[in-house]
């Protein structure tokens, strides 16, 4: 097993924190504006995807880095409908994700066998 790059560790923990805190902040906002069932589903689902991708990045699962990129790319797409600064920020974060998850050390880490549960 290759040693996990610190940048992957930081990104994974940030994804998990964003998944938990982002979902929680939306739920707090629901007191003011109750969500539709579909909004509730998508907010919960996207938060869960962020948490799962972060957790499995820590385990070295290659699919998790693709999930993290897809999650961030989805946010870039959503932010097209918001102020330009949000689109720019999400786009820059996507570029950072790509850089951090595809650097040589990260590629080597994700090529190795995932850690076993035992």
Structural summary, described in words:
The chain has helices at 6-29, 37-58, 62-79, 84-102, 104-111. The chain is an all-alpha fold. The protein contains five helices and no strands. Helices cover 77% and strands 0% of the residues. It has one domain (6-111). The two termini are 15 Å apart. It is globular and about 50 Å long. The longest helix is centred in the first third of the chain and has 24 residues, at 6-29.
Unreliable segments (pLDDT under 50, ≥5 consecutive)?
A: none
Count of helical stretches: 5
Give the CA-CA distance, first to last residue: 15 Å
**Net shape:** globular
Q: Biggest sheet: strands, sense, closure?
A: none
Strand content: under 5%
- Tell me the number of structural domains: 1
**Estimated structural class:** mainly alpha
Overall pLDDT score: 92
SSE arrangement, N to C: HHHHH
Number of distinct beta strands: 0
Q: What is the helical fraction, as a range of percent?
A: over 70%
State Rg.
Answer: 16 Å
Keywords:
mainly alpha
How are the elements arranged and paired?
Layout: H1 6-29, H2 37-58, H3 62-79, H4 84-102, H5 104-111
Helix pairs in contact: 1-2, 2-3, 3-4
Gist of the model:
The protein has one domain. By secondary structure, the chain is mostly helical. The chain has helices spanning 6-29, 37-58, 62-79, 84-102, 104-111.
């Amino acid at each position: 097993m290759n040693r996990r790059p610190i940048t992957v560790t930081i990104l994974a923990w940030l994804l998990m924190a964003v998944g938990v805190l982002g979902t929680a902040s939306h739920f707090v906002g629901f007191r003011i504006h109750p969500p539709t069932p579909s909004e509730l589903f998508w907010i919960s689902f996207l938060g869960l995807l962020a948490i799962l991708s972060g957790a499995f990045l820590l385990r070295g699962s290659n699919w998790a880095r693709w999930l993290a990129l897809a999650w961030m790319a989805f946010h870039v797409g959503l932010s097209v409908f918001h102020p330009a600064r949000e689109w720019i920020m999400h786009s820059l974060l996507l570029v950072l994700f790509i850089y951090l998850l595809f650097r040589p050390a990260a590629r080597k880490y994700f090529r190795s066998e995932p850690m076993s549960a035992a």
